[in-house]
Amino acid sequence: MKNNITSKTWACLAVTAAALTLTACGGGNDDDPEPSERTGVLTVTSATAPGFDGVYGDGNVNLTDVDKKNPVGSYPEVCTFKFDGINRVAGSGQASGDVRYRPDSAVVYEAFISFMGSEFGASDWGDVQVVRSTDRIRLVNKVLENDQGVRITVSGVIPMRGNRPGGC
Prior knowledge:
Layout: H1 2-24, E1 34-39, E2 41-45, E3 54-56, E4 60-63, E5 67-69, E6 78-87, E7 94-101, E8 108-115, E9 118-121, E10 129-131, E11 136-146, E12 151-159
Antiparallel strand pairs: 1-4, 2-3, 2-12, 4-6, 5-6, 6-7, 7-8, 8-9, 9-11, 10-11, 11-12
């Protein structure tokens, strides 16, 4: 009987440890974008390195749900979602990313967008619109830069799911 209780205790501890590990990593597949039946398109122009210019958006975009997060520290509360599967038209590669905007704000707070496996960002996102009425993020001639100093200009729309928390 003593060994049976010990085995059950160990099994319970193992399940708890696995659950805590998944929670620390953001959960199982909660952070993985899933097919959305929504389309998006991003056009990259004026790249300062070859291989980035082109149209990305040949079908449905994979999206996560929009979550409201209030991190500890100096970062503000944000609405956040991830996307991928914005495939390059007439070529290989895709666009993916992570978008964050403040509740009830009309502009993006921060975003990270990858093209062809290279992550681009900007120090100011105040010119990128959050358009809740059409469930989209709208970029118009947004200049982004990667850590190698490559600059690109991006225009287009990134869809987001409609079932968002209040303010998102």
